[in-house]
């Protein structure tokens, strides 16, 4: 039986895309379509069943109740696409004067908001205040809009996600990893740099895609998430919970700052195994290069995962191993040497690819789990499901 969810469409230019999202959702869910008065000015609703009135009939029996109560009791999720400035302001301040805001008010389950508006409205401090208020309830997921060309013709933040992008996020958020919900999680990903001189360095071909997919899922399926990341294909922003580092030593330092407070630690970063021993603390001038400066000497680099394993107390420690083939004898040696609870072995062919094929080794029962090749977003689901099912 399909889960029933509510798709709430508020007024705004992006409402014109909402029926496409509705059709995508119907493949996996039983969808109640709830439309505000202003949304009807942007969409065609012929041949569609929808709700747009609070009370659409007379009530002569005092024991009857409104449709908003029935809808809320039967559903498991609200999706607001698009979420206008006005609609966000109403629900944040307890105003429930139409069917859409009433459904939100009576729901005790999650609501996913897809804001869409002019960038001046999105950056308005009043909207920021309302956003913070909604997020503090614990039942609201706020999906940032895109930066791009807006209906006004200007460039800025506030552009609605495309329906297929919203659908993907909804599917991801609909997964429940119950054993992760109350856990503090520390995740690293991306690649680090071994510097040759002040401006040149050695790195690898990791894109950081695998770690980013894990981050997306963990953001809404954990008590708290701290990420420490190196270089990634798409640059990321730093904030109080997301830290950028360049080298293995910086990675270890930042991981240790958060390690002892973490329940689960997932190390998917592609760190260098060897670093430059004869580093020169200035740019090597091309015309002044000598034979010595052209010879790079390598030494064993700091093994972040191994150091974390030495200090492990109560943490569930998960590592990644990149290999040319699935040599499980070598993999089990890594599990023991690095004091891991789980090791995810993937092949070097996954570098910069959108797909991956993995094997997972579980230390507690010496079990090996095989997964078929799949896209990295699907592999991320498999990894987190395995962690969820095997926590001590």
From TrEMBL:
<dbReference type="GO" id="GO:0004633">
    <property type="term" value="F:phosphopantothenoylcysteine decarboxylase activity"/>
</dbReference>
<dbReference type="InterPro" id="IPR035929">
    <property type="entry name" value="CoaB-like_sf"/>
</dbReference>
<keyword id="KW-0210">Decarboxylase</keyword>
<dbReference type="GO" id="GO:0010181">
    <property type="term" value="F:FMN binding"/>
</dbReference>
<feature type="domain" description="DNA/pantothenate metabolism flavoprotein C-terminal">
    <location>
        <begin position="180"/>
        <end position="388"/>
    </location>
</feature>
<feature type="domain" description="Flavoprotein">
    <location>
        <begin position="3"/>
        <end position="134"/>
    </location>
</feature>
<dbReference type="GO" id="GO:0015941">
    <property type="term" value="P:pantothenate catabolic process"/>
</dbReference>
<dbReference type="InterPro" id="IPR036551">
    <property type="entry name" value="Flavin_trans-like"/>
</dbReference>
<dbReference type="InterPro" id="IPR005252">
    <property type="entry name" value="CoaBC"/>
</dbReference>
<comment type="pathway">
    <text>Cofactor biosynthesis; coenzyme A biosynthesis; CoA from (R)-pantothenate: step 3/5.</text>
</comment>
<dbReference type="Pfam" id="PF02441">
    <property type="entry name" value="Flavoprotein"/>
</dbReference>
<comment type="similarity">
    <text>In the C-terminal section; belongs to the PPC synthetase family.</text>
</comment>
<dbReference type="InterPro" id="IPR003382">
    <property type="entry name" value="Flavoprotein"/>
</dbReference>
<keyword id="KW-0436">Ligase</keyword>
<keyword id="KW-0288">FMN</keyword>
<dbReference type="GO" id="GO:0071513">
    <property type="term" value="C:phosphopantothenoylcysteine decarboxylase complex"/>
</dbReference>
<dbReference type="GO" id="GO:0004632">
    <property type="term" value="F:phosphopantothenate--cysteine ligase activity"/>
</dbReference>
<dbReference type="Pfam" id="PF04127">
    <property type="entry name" value="DFP"/>
</dbReference>
<keyword id="KW-0456">Lyase</keyword>
<comment type="pathway">
    <text>Cofactor biosynthesis; coenzyme A biosynthesis; CoA from (R)-pantothenate: step 2/5.</text>
</comment>
<comment type="similarity">
    <text>In the N-terminal section; belongs to the HFCD (homo-oligomeric flavin containing Cys decarboxylase) superfamily.</text>
</comment>
<protein>
    <recommendedName>
        <fullName>Coenzyme A biosynthesis bifunctional protein CoaBC</fullName>
        <ecNumber>4.1.1.36</ecNumber>
        <ecNumber>6.3.2.5</ecNumber>
    </recommendedName>
</protein>
<keyword id="KW-0285">Flavoprotein</keyword>
<dbReference type="GO" id="GO:0015937">
    <property type="term" value="P:coenzyme A biosynthetic process"/>
</dbReference>
<comment type="function">
    <text>Catalyzes two steps in the biosynthesis of coenzyme A. In the first step cysteine is conjugated to 4'-phosphopantothenate to form 4-phosphopantothenoylcysteine, in the latter compound is decarboxylated to form 4'-phosphopantotheine.</text>
</comment>
<dbReference type="InterPro" id="IPR007085">
    <property type="entry name" value="DNA/pantothenate-metab_flavo_C"/>
</dbReference>
């Amino acid at each position: 039986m399909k889960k029933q969810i509510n798709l709430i469409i508020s007024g705004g230019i992006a409402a014109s895309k909402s029926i496409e999202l509705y059709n995508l959702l119907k493949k996996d869910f039983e969808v109640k379509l709830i439309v505000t008065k202003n949304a009807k000015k942007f969409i065609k609703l012929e041949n569609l069943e929808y709700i747009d009135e609070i009370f659409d009939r007379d009530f002569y029996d005092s024991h009857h109740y409104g449709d908003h109560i029935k809808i809320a009791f039967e559903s498991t999720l609200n999706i607001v696409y698009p979420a206008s400035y006005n609609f966000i302001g109403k629900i944040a301040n307890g105003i429930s004067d139409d069917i859409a805001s009433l459904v939100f008010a009576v729901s005790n389950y999650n609501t996913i908001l897809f804001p869409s508006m002019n960038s001046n409205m999105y950056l308005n401090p009043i909207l920021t205040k309302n956003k913070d208020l909604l997020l503090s309830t614990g039942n609201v997921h706020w999906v940032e809009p895109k930066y791009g060309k807006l209906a006004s013709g200007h460039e800025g933040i506030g552009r609605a996600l495309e329906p297929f992008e919203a659908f993907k996020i909804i599917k991801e958020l609909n997964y429940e990893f119950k054993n992760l919900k109350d856990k503090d999680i520390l995740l690293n990903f991306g690649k680090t740099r071994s510097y040759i001189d002040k401006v040149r360095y050695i790195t690898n071909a990791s894109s950081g895609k695998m770690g980013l997919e894990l981050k997306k899922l963990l953001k809404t399926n954990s008590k708290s998430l701290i990420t420490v990341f190196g270089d990634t294909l798409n640059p990321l922003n730093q904030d109080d919970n997301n830290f950028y580092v360049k080298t293995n030593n910086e990675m270890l330092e930042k991981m240790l700052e958060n390690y002892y407070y973490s329940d689960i630690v997932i190390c998917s970063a592609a760190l260098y195994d060897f670093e430059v021993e004869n580093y020169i603390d200035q740019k090597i001038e091309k015309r002044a290069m000598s034979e010595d400066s052209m010879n790079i000497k390598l030494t064993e680099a700091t093994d972040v995962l191994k150091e974390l394993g030495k200090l492990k107390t109560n943490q569930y420690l998960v590592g990644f191993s990149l290999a040319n083939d699935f040599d499980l004898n070598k993999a089990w040696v890594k599990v023991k040497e690095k004091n891991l609870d789980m090791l995810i072995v993937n092949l070097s062919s996954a570098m910069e690819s959108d797909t991956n094929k993995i094997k997972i080794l579980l230390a507690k029962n010496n079990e090996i789990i095989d997964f078929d090749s799949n896209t990295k977003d699907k592999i991320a689901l498999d990894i987190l499901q395995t962690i969820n099912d095997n926590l001590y």
